[in-house]
Amino acid sequence: MKKQSKRTIKQRRRAGKTDYKARFKLLKSCLPRVIVRKTNRYITAQYVKSEQAQDFVVITVSSKELLKYGWKKEQAGSLKSLPAAYLTGLLLGKKIKQMNKENKAILDIGLHRNVKKSRIYVVLNGLIDSGMEIKHKKEVFPDEKRIKGEHLKNKIDFEKIKENILK
Q1: What order do you get walking across the sheet with 54-62 strand by strand?
Q2: How far, in Å, CA of 85 to CA of 45, rounded?
Q3: Which residues have CB under 8 Å from 139's CB, separation 6+?
Q4: How far apart are the C-alpha atoms of 93 and 34, rounded to whole Å?
Q5: Per-residue pLDDT reduced to its tens digit, 30-73
Q6: Which domains are delineated in the chain?
């Protein structure tokens, strides 16, 4: 019979919110983290610095902000699409560049599944195109046609929004 330990499992681990082993590895890198989260409606990305296991959110960007840059309000339901994810990453990268000269970070996907060519990696692609240095493999990115939204039936003026962000 297997002996059970008397150790109490932390509340956030029991609730399925935090993987402490993965978090410890990210904190050991001493690099700022880019945290990407998906919801049913939006993509959210945060630039977070940690000091003594205390997280400080420096910048937060949501795909909802793309409405200010020319995303049509009729297409607001598609703010979780691949083009929206790319433009959200591009916007976060631009804001990080404006704020400080540090351009190295590490990607934190939390408890989301690690799926190639997913929206999380499209955000990473946008961050890298904005000039951030984040360790990655090229095969996790989808092809350019999907990033630009050519597969969507309601076409998005991708290039115009990209220009507005980079201004």
Answers
A1: 54-62, 43-51, 33-38, 104-108, 133-134
A2: 9
A3: 116
A4: 10
A5: 899 999 999 999 999 999 998 887 889 999 999 999 999 999 98
A6: 17-166 (3.30.420.100)
